[in-house]
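Board work, copied verbatim: Polyamine aminopropyltransferase
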Amino acid sequence: MPGAERGARGREFSGGLPVGPGPARLLVLATVFVCAACGLVYELELVALASYLMGDSVTQASVVLSVMVFAMGVGALLAKRLRCRAALGFGVVEAILALVGGVSALALYASFAWSPEWFAGGLGGARFLMVGFSLLIGVLIGAEVPLLMEMMQRIRRQDAGGAVADLFAADYVGALVGGLAFPFLLLPLLGQLTGALLTGAVNAFAGGALVLGLFGRDLSRRSRRLLVLLNVTVLALLGTAAALVGDFEDAARRAMYGTDVRVAVQSEVQEIVLTGGRGPTLALYLDGRLRVSGADEHGYHEGLVHPAMAGPHARVLILGGGDGLAAREVLRHPGVRRVDLVELDPAVVDLARRDPGLTTLNDHAYGDRRLHPVTADAFDWLRSARTGTGARPGGGYDVVIADLPHPGITSSTKLYSEEFFGLAARVLAPGGRIAVHSGSPADRPKTFWTVDATLRAAGLLTTPYSASGTDGAFAFGPDRAPRDHPKAPDWGFLLAGRERPPLTLAPPGDGGPPLRLDEAALRAGALAAEATRLPDLPPSTLSHPRYPH
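↓ predict structure ↓
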């Protein structure tokens, strides 16, 4: 009886297939593996690109993944209507999925480049587009397993539990491979756009090959022709898009940054775009965010550096600032003996060393023997310096300059945490000061005063102040889109120490150009920042980040 029972469960129905039931099942499971890998790459592409374009990676990942999982359930229900023609249905689903998933990154990027008002609208067009792609891709992915289940039963009738176990095993292993391939293979070698297009092509080929090669005899001649035409069309569209992706990226950059893009590279850390020539026309963008504007960067860097230099300043630590502009201001003080600069991205340092426009702007700071750049994550470097494993020759620092990305950017929140400021405080010499760029007190008061609360929680006393610029073409902060009504940026800073530092300027004394910032503007900036104070805000920690996005 047990043998008869096993025979009933494993009864073969492989008539009409070009291979036996064993190889046929392996082909189906291999296709499940490939399609699962492609499906996860689509998810990760949407998460990565949405985070890059809109910021706040936690929110984007939550929206994409939750919407997609919900849509997969909807797709599984809708697939019940296709079970009677499972092979044809699967072939059509995979072709559509390949096209939608392959072009999703292109479409989202195009809307960012040519419809920036969508991205300035908060929960407007950009997120609707992202949610739309997540829904459609999720529905198509969800339809795969029910259709594949029918196709498996077409090969050999078996109990549902065994078939589901086989399908999900192949599916989960494929998802593992896709999840690892995206960050370690596709993204660094091909980039987000080409990687998505290649994934779509692999998806279309795998789905079409399985249906036409293994189940082609189950299809009518008309269905076979339809499926061949559909897959050829999808592959042609994806191939054409891949061939033109370089021109597309150039056109998108011109739309976003203007026609004078001089450098556009993707480092291991971020996208780096440099536009303009020398002086006021130069602009440096990191991951789409305006980081340096030659028109008014002096206002920012003078406000960040010179109040902190009022006091002993023989040894200075700069966290971030790979463009060399904060270092330029520090090195104007003859009393500076050593400057250690910790920058995460060596490509930024290399550009600041070699680009004629940027080296002119930073006054060839990297040619000064007092400046010692280090490639490292600022948090990790401070932790190693505290434990004695990092390079910190000569004792503590008189001044620490935190020239870091905006705290509202998710990847930067650890650099504005209580733990980070505690580590920074430990490398201070007695009487040392820390200067921190803290966001705009006028536009983002909660962010600014949360940084203040976090510094105080780390045992430091703070002096808030602000400075104003002139270039309002791009928002300064986590936003990337042009403001609807540009205005001059409002930079907020916090000067901190174990004793509350006085707010005054230290004249450089190098015989160079006079500072644009004066004592009257500094006092006015302190009053302007104080007027926005929000009391009783909790500090931000690694386990509980509190910066709004």
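The chain has a mean pLDDT of 87.
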